[in-house]
Amino acid sequence: MIRSAVVPREDDVELTPTSPTTALGSFGNAPMVPLVSVPAETAEPRAVGIVIADQPIFRHGLRRLLETNPRLRIVGEAGDSAQTVTAVLRLRPDVLLLGAPPGRCPLDTLEKIAALHTPVRTILLTTSVDTADVLHALQLGACGVILKDAAEASLFQSIDCVMAGQYWVGIERAADVVASVRQLEIARRRARAFGLTRRELELVHAIVDGETNKAIGQRFCISENTVKRHLTHIFNKVGASNRLELAMFAAHHQLVDLV
Fold it and tell me: Is 222 exposed, middle or buried (0-12, 13-18, 19+ CB in 10 A)?
C-alpha cells in the first residue's frame, strides 16, 4: 500500500544531478513582502498562489477543491507544456500543480521550468507512483509527487509541506528515495563517461527491453528516422555495431539502472 512520506530538506544532502552523495536539499525561500505594516500577532498569512496545469477535467476538479481552502489562491491555469512555462514565468506562483499524462512523467516541462530559476514549488500529480519517475522528477526540480486519487487532505498537506521547505513523496519509504538517488548518480557518472545524454539512455533502455524502432518512435513521439539517427550516435559513442552489442554493453556497464 502506498503511503505518503514527508522528507525534510534541511540537514539532508542537496539534490543535484551532478552530486553522487546528494539526495534532498533546499530550494530557497520565496520573498515575503507585507502589504501593510501591522503587528505580527494580527497579520493575516499571505495566500499561497497556485497554478494548475493539467487536462481541463482535472483542472476544474482541482480548482473547486482548492477554492474550499481560504489560504490558497488560484492565480492561473495551463493546458500544455508551453502554457505551463509561460504561466510560471509571468504569474510567479508559489506552487505549480503539474498533472502527468497516464504512463508518462513530464520531464521536458520540468526541465523548462527549472531553467526559469523561479522559486516555484512543483508538485507532480500522477496516476501512479514509480520510483524511477520520482527520482527523475525530483532531480529536475519537483518538490512533491502525489497520486491523483489520493485523499483530499493529502493534497492540502503536500502543499503545506513544500511551502515549509520539505519534499512530499508518495512512496512506501522516504529512505528509498535517498538510497535510489545515490545509486542513480553512480550510474549517471558511468553514462557520462561514454557521453550519453538522458534521451540516449532512455533509448538504450528501450533497446534492452527489445522494443522496435517503430515502438520507440511512438513511445517518445519521434519518427523512426529520428530513432535511427539517435541509435547511430549511440553506436558511435559506445563502439557497438548493432542492437545486440548495444544491449550487452548496457547490461555490462549497468546503464539500464539509469531509467
Answer: middle
